[in-house]
Design a protein that fits this description.
The chain is α+β, with helices and mostly antiparallel strands and 95 residues long. It has a single domain, classed as 2-Layer Sandwich (Alpha-Beta Plaits), CATH 3.30.70. Helices cover 13% and strands 24% of the residues. Strands 1, 2, 3 and 4 form a 4-stranded mixed beta sheet that branches. β3 and β4 form a beta hairpin. The chain starts with 27 loop residues before the first strand and ends with a strand. The mean pLDDT is 87.
Length: 95
C-alpha cells in the first residue's frame, strides 16, 4: 500500500498538501562527536558527507580504496541511506 492510499485520521478536515522527504538532500543528518580528537594515538579522524549510501557501504569502499581492513574503521552508529549524512570516521594510521 502506498502512502497516498492510507486513510486519513481526520477525513473531515482538508489536507494541506506537500511532499515528505522526496530527495535525500531534504533529510540531513549531522553527527555530533562525543569528544574532540586529542591529537594523540594511531588513528586519523575524518569528517565525510555522503548521499545515497549506507555507512557500511561507505566504510567498505574506503577500506578497499585505502587498502585497509573495513573492521579497522570506526564509526558511531549507522545512519540513513536516504539522506545527506555528515559523519566522523576513525581510520587506522597507515604509512
Amino acid at each position: 500500500m502506498s502512502l497516498s492510499q492510507l486513510p486519513y485520521i481526520t477525513p473531515e478536515l482538508p489536507g494541506i498538501g506537500g511532499t515528505i522527504k522526496v530527495e535525500p538532500e531534504h533529510f540531513r543528518v549531522e553527527e555530533v562527536p562525543l569528544y574532540e580528537p586529542s591529537g594523540a594515538g594511531d588513528h586519523l579522524f575524518v569528517c565525510v558527507t555522503r548521499t545515497g549510501q549506507t555507512t557500511r557501504e561507505l566504510v567498505e569502499g574506503l577500506a578497499e580504496r585505502l587498502g585497509i581492513r573495513a573492521d579497522g574503521i570506526g564509526y558511531a552508529g549507522l545512519k540513513d541511506r536516504q539522506a545527506e549524512v555528515t559523519q566522523v570516521l576513525s581510520l587506522p594510521y597507515v604509512t
